[in-house]
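Notes on consecutive records. When two proteins share a document, each keeps its own sequence and its own token line. Never mix them. Below: protein one.
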Amino acid sequence: MLKRDILRRKEDFDLIYKKGRSVGERYIVLFYMKNGLSYNRIAFLASKKVGNSVRRNRAKRLMKESYRFLKDDIGNGYDIIFIARNTINGKKLRDVEKSMANSLSKSKLYQR
């Protein structure tokens, strides 16, 4: 992922939470909003409810790797936030990837 592809500013997060849309799935919650750019900006989050730092980092790694498999089939021009639920603990990559694909399909961002 390039530096420009990552969401960082608090104002961007606040705007997506306030004016964006959300979709819940078994292992993740997806927030998204059009950004008016020709590329997507992404963020992966895991709160302390997910567990200690080892579990939070594993959850983020699983989401990043799942996104890497799916990114070519996602439409452009969106700000996307993936938030891990505590049910992600102990799950395999394929489970998280399936949950992510389902949430992207529900939001009509997934073009497969």
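Protein two starts on the next line and is unrelated to protein one.
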Amino acid sequence: MDNESGYLAISFSHKNTQIQMREKLAFNSAESTKSFLQTIKTQNTHTQEIILLSTCNRVEIYIYTLHPQNTKDFVISLLAQIKNIDLPTLETIADVYVNQGAVHHIFCVASSLDSIVVGETQIGGQLKSAYKFCFDNNFCGKNLTRLVHFAFRCAAEVRNSTQISQNAISVASVAVKEANTLFEQHGIECKIAIVVGVGEMGILTSKHLLHCGYKILLLNRNKQKAVTLANELNSEYGEMVEVRNFSELSTLINQHILLFSATSAPYPIIHQPMVELTDFKRFWFDLAVPRDIQKPNIDNIVLFGVDDLQEVVCQNLASRRKNTTKAYEIVGTYTLEFFRWLQTLGVEPLIKKIREFAKEASLKELDRAIKKGFLPQEYEDSVAKILHNAFNVFLHKPTINIKKFADKEDADPIIEAIKAVFDIDDVMLINRYKCEYDTTLN
């Protein structure tokens, strides 16, 4: 592994890690996330900046480090320790990417090429939230901001240049589609669904259910949050959402056919003793990681987990193969462009270019003055020296200031603005340094 400073990505995803292990690795609270990141920043001096992305399909750590090998070893060892996982096992399953490989991987994640459902847009919001949390808590700065900002640009290009997100489906929509198919196969006409949880997955699931004409019984430990969501959904879809008390969960799951659970609880909320035998078949969708539902031992309950939905998704991949190929080409191009852009951010080439502009303008005007007869030819060398000294004096203070700007966290937009003013190539204006405000993936 190259040990020069640069980008590092450590990935545990649906591609390499079983759901049981992802459950153990998941970070389900701001406190646990902050504690983990703070330990890395304080105990591993090579780690400069860090972002943790924890979703139902992946736990990934993005780092700007002075020593990738050392940082990788430290992070995986710390994960094994705090999550009580065998270290050799964790080292075996981890996918590790460095510099160009890390950038390419993160661009694929942002562009939804690494998702269970290729083309879904939910990952964009998840990445923004992870970045914002880490930026606001001083875990990341200029280097990872550059990377995430460019990742958003890459994702927007993938979306705009391909049809990969046309009729894009999230895990939530795949679950609802599967439920619809099952209802049709079994001739079920009563379209009522229990939805537990009002987080992002719960909201997406509810919207897909309402779009398909389902009535929803909505439950959440914090009832007021459920009421707020129900009011929003009812104003848009009509009075189709009814809020029920969380204490009614054990009763409702034995009265209705369809259940979707997507809470952030660190342990199952539906246990074996809660489940009663019924004379009708039930379909339960556990969209949470860690899982919300303890596998029932009753034959007439069909339980789907996040990984089970991948089988449904695979049926749609053939038609998307052409678009996926094009999308990977875009990611490859953006990866190369990102590193080229990084090279343009050095202030020395910028200062040199501005001085070249000043010199060219001076000599051009001197040549014109001699040709027009405004200045004798024999004065050319002397006047050239005077002009050279003049633009040196003029550029002295701006040069000092540009070098000072380069050491600041918000250097990029300042340097890019200067490049734009002087019409220097390779300009990529960053309108806002905090790129979580970028809306291209909404």
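For the record: DSSP finds 16 helices and ten strands in the chain.
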